[in-house]
Amino acid sequence: MDRQIISNSFKSIQDNISSKLSIISSQDYQEDKWVYDSGSGGGITRIFSDGDIEKAGVNFSSITGKLSDDISSKVIGKGKDFYATGVSVVIHPKNPFVPTMHMNIRYLERNNQKWFGGGIDLTPYYISKNDIIDYHLKLKSLCDRYDFVNYKNFKDSCDKYFFIKHRNETRGVGGIFFDNLESNLDQTFKFVTENGKTFLDIFLPLFNNFNKKNYTNKHREFQLYRRGRYVEFNLVYDRGTLFGLETNGRIESILMSLPPYSSWKYNWKPELNSEEAKLYEFLKPTEWINFDE
Amino acid sequence: MDRQIISNSFKSIQDNISSKLSIISSQDYQEDKWVYDSGSGGGITRIFSDGDIEKAGVNFSSITGKLSDDISSKVIGKGKDFYATGVSVVIHPKNPFVPTMHMNIRYLERNNQKWFGGGIDLTPYYISKNDIIDYHLKLKSLCDRYDFVNYKNFKDSCDKYFFIKHRNETRGVGGIFFDNLESNLDQTFKFVTENGKTFLDIFLPLFNNFNKKNYTNKHREFQLYRRGRYVEFNLVYDRGTLFGLETNGRIESILMSLPPYSSWKYNWKPELNSEEAKLYEFLKPTEWINFDE
């Protein structure tokens, strides 16, 4: 695999996602180019704010550097030199009926070892079971186009990764999560870039269907409350975030994932049989697709 | 020292603080009694919300249990059995001109080893240098009444503890922080309980002076933004919080410290020479009291 080809492809995924988000929300984005001080290369951070997309970050980076001793043992492969390129997207829509959505794709090299990782996951506030199933069917369809990709395995990894232990809840309704994909690099590259396309195939309809839906203060308050869980996950458990904090990464790019507004209410519980209570039924590992049918 | 005497004294500090907060804010508090499932004893959590005190928690607990292997090595002393009693207070006022304030006092036993710990710290949004100095003079005056207590040492420990490494900022304008006070237990007990009194001597005037001050949406937005830092510190660094999460403590009592509303804005910086910029000058370890005078 050629770094430059992968990195160019990732860059164009950033371009495509940011331009599509710009069109659907009629918002411009703010762009920051940054350089990686501890090595070479850098990145481009694009931020949407204060519109129907209340906050979104679309990050691209391509960097080379040396792994610290601390990090060295947490990553596969040997040697200090590394190359990493990736795209990372987090969208926090304003309307509580549009889910928060996240995608990350990355390619790493450590000496002769080369691998891809990434994933897509969805964190709704109000959602129907049908929309969750539809979402998972799109992910399964993506996975099924590659004979070496097993949707079920990637889905289970996602449930396991995005789990808020102290709340005994998943962060959202799952998705796919994968790492250390080392074999079949050409095909894996195709699969990974197709994640960028599938991300939009999922998010754009959700946005278009629900962005204009009327909501009340109660809906908004629930959204802010649940965004608190997003913060709890990212600051307590998310490996990417903690990795970034430990390695003195660019703090504003790392924490762009945090929501624009969030709240914590003491011991808040949804009312029985309420719209809000319904979400909690979904926040556990679930077989969304019935494989027997 | 007798556990029961200390625990009763701590309980009355909780009563005193919650009743004073109730009077100044004209708010009732919500009370939850809880039992410590993994041992014996329990606690009382009191919560203020939705008033001039936008959110506050006043926690009391008195528990016995067994330390896990994981925690065992992080605490002084030997053996598994422990007893712990403490009071913990966090106040998030609604008015951005009233600082957020925190106090914790605790007493621990592990076999024959007995010690006190605790501290007071202040996290303002808008504050004058004079008010910070006044605050530190009150803490120094408290410390100076005990010949074994050194304000400067406790202040330095506080600066060191409440430091947000990834932001290169202190959480607030410091205070005092102490742990493992094992000698002179009778006098230390007096000092620790006096922290509860000093806490009110500091907070009540700040509340009375600034609670009615007019504020704009800009002030409120800055408060929410800075509260994001409070969340970052508590979830990424605070030993008490992480200890609680790791030991399956009562999650709502542990996370009562998190603010009612907070926000994150990408790469936000205060305008040069603005009221907001002034705060940033204070968010570093500072000798607030000129010892030469």
How would you state the average pLDDT of chain A, rounded?
Answer: 95
| Major interchain interface with per-chain residue totals | A-B, 33 and 33 residues
Q: What share of residues of chain A is helical?
A: 40-55%
Largest sheet of chain A: 7 strands, antiparallel
Helix tally of chain A equals 9
Which quaternary structure do these chains form? Answer: homodimer
How many runs of DSSP E, i.e. beta strands of chain A? 10
The low-confidence parts of chain A are none
Strand-pairing-aware structural class of chain A = alpha+beta
β content of chain A, as a range?
Answer: 25-35%
CATH topology of chain A: oxygen-dependent coproporphyrinogen oxidase
Distance between the terminal alpha carbons of chain A, to the nearest Å? 39 Å
Side by side, the strands of the main sheet of chain A go 1-2-3-4-5-6-9
What is the top-level CATH class of chain A?
A: Alpha Beta
Corresponding CATH architecture of chain A: 3-Layer(aba) Sandwich
- State the fourth-level CATH superfamily of chain A: Coproporphyrinogen III oxidase, aerobic
